[in-house]
């Protein structure tokens, strides 16, 4: 069983990113600015990711995907890289979101756009690409080897670093465009 800190702290960190994105969405909504829905969807995506960090929802996708895609799990197919079938819809979803956000990204200041794109590409690379590399190594019997542990560590570091970069970009953007946010209840 994993240490609670391994799942709790990243989940809280990702949740913080969701909260900051929702604050920007609310401020943009109040100002009547464009792309409010994009900010709201980003906040929702990060909320989902924070829940996934805590509960590993993505790992429950396997049984749902077994029927249509189960043959891809075979180590003879791509060396076992598709052992974790959730990487397929995760990659497709990331691609769809990326394409749907092109206009939004072009609307952002250059610095923010570059940081958003860099963090998104790094996150998908780590989450999907490194996961596939680890699955391939695991399928070949290398799950409990130092190499596998190094691979998993690199994957987690890139994931968290990319979220940190994204959060910094959101905070920087909010500071330069939204300013101080006051809440009234």
Structure description:
The chain is mostly helical and 185 residues long. It has 7 helices and no strands. α1 runs antiparallel to α2. The longest helix has 33 residues. The radius of gyration is 18 Å and the shape is elongated.
Give me a quick take on this structure.
This protein is 76% helix and 0% strand.
Which stretches are poorly predicted, pLDDT < 50 over at least 5 residues? 1-5
Strands, total number: 0
> How would you describe the shape?
elongated
* Total helical segments: 7
Measured distance between first and last alpha carbons: 41 Å
Defining key terms:
single chain, 185 residues, mainly alpha, 7 helices, disordered N terminus
Summarize the helices and strands and which ones pair or pack.
Layout: H1 4-31, H2 36-55, H3 61-69, H4 87-100, H5 102-107, H6 110-139, H7 146-178
């Amino acid at each position: 069983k994993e240490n609670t800190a391994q799942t709790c702290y990243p989940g809280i960190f990702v949740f913080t990113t969701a909260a900051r994105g929702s604050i920007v969405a609310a401020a943009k909504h109040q100002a009547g600015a464009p792309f409010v829905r994009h900010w709201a969807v980003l906040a929702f995506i990060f909320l989902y990711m924070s829940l996934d960090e805590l509960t590993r929802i993505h790992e429950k996708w396997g049984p749902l995907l077994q029927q249509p895609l189960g043959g891809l799990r075979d180590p003879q197919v791509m060396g076992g890289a598709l052992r974790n079938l959730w990487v397929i819809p995760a990659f497709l979803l990331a691609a769809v979101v990326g394409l749907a956000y092109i206009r939004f990204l072009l609307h952002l200041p250059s610095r923010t756009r570059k940081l958003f794109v860099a963090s998104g590409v790094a996150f998908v690379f780590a989450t999907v690409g490194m996961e596939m590399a680890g699955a391939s190594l695991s399928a070949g019997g290398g799950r409990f080897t130092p190499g596998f542990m190094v691979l998993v560590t690199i994957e987690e570091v890139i994931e968290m670093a990319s979220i940190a970069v994204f959060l910094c970009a959101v905070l920087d953007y909010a500071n330069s465009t939204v300013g101080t946010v006051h809440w009234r209840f």
